[in-house]
Amino acid sequence: SDPIHAKSVLKSFENGYTNLTCSKHILGNNYQRKHHLKPITWAWLDYPFTKWKRATDGQSGFNKLKLNRGHPETTPHIHSIMLIHPKTIDRFEALGADGLKKIFREADPRVMTTDLQMVNNIKRTVEYSSALMKYPRPGLQDLYIVLPDRDATFRSKMNWHRESEQLKADREERKRLNEMVARREFEWRKSA
After folding, report:
1. Which of 81, 98, 97, 100 is nearest to 26 (CA)?
2. What is the rounded radius of gyration, in angstroms, for the C-alpha atoms of the chain?
3. β-bridge mates for residue 46, sequence order
């Protein structure tokens, strides 16, 4: 089968996260207003070669493909940690790993498995999830993403108003400068 590119895996995760949070699955009705309830998520890219003992060690090429469900052993995957708001824990538990897989598969049908666990040892989990960052390789940029994008999500009404006022002021300044340039150009042509 065709190789799966790292950037497409991260984008696939981002799309799955969007499906999960921008719908009624987790946040319920009026999810647009509940940005504060979205799980803060770190997602790291990983490859099978970062694991010390693999299920495929010592296997033939055919068995490796069989164990990896038809994908080569270089198939990237995602490890993520979600900090879930206490108000949405029940919805995540009701969804379970199968429900999560279904939602992520809507974004990308290549998603094979998902796992949902409560974790107590966050340091060990972060070390395991971000294992690829210990092995930097040329051509591998963007090894992780953080969701939701704070700049796009958490704009307050005050900031929104301030940005809108700034845009209005910028347009007026641009218009004033364009009129000034047009006047000078007209005067230059008139005197020439």
Report:
1. 100
2. 24
3. 77
Helix 89-107 with 6-21: angle, nearest 10 deg: 130
Q: What is the mean pLDDT of each run of 10 residues along the chain (192 residues)?
A: 71 89 82 84 79 54 52 71 91 90 88 82 85 67 77 54 69 77 78 73
Closest CA to 78 of 33, 121, 129: 129
* Residue 68 burial (CB count, 10 A): 19
Task: Assess contact for 16 and 109: CB atoms under 8 A.
Answer: no
Two tokens, residue 12: 């696939």
The percent helix, strand, coil of the chain (3-state, each to 5) is 55, 10, 35
Q: What are the Cα distances from residue 5, in Å, to 30, 74, 76, 182?
A: 35, 10, 7, 51
CA 149 to chain centroid = 8
Q: Where are the alpha helices (DSSP H) in 136-191?
A: 150-153, 157-191
Residue 136: cis peptide before it, omega within 30 degrees of 0: no
Q: Name 40's bridge partners.
A: 83
Q: What is the pTM of this model?
A: 0.64
Instruction: Please state, in angstroms and rounded to a whole number, the distance separating the CA atoms of residues 50 and 90.
Output: 33
How many residues in total does the chain contain?
192
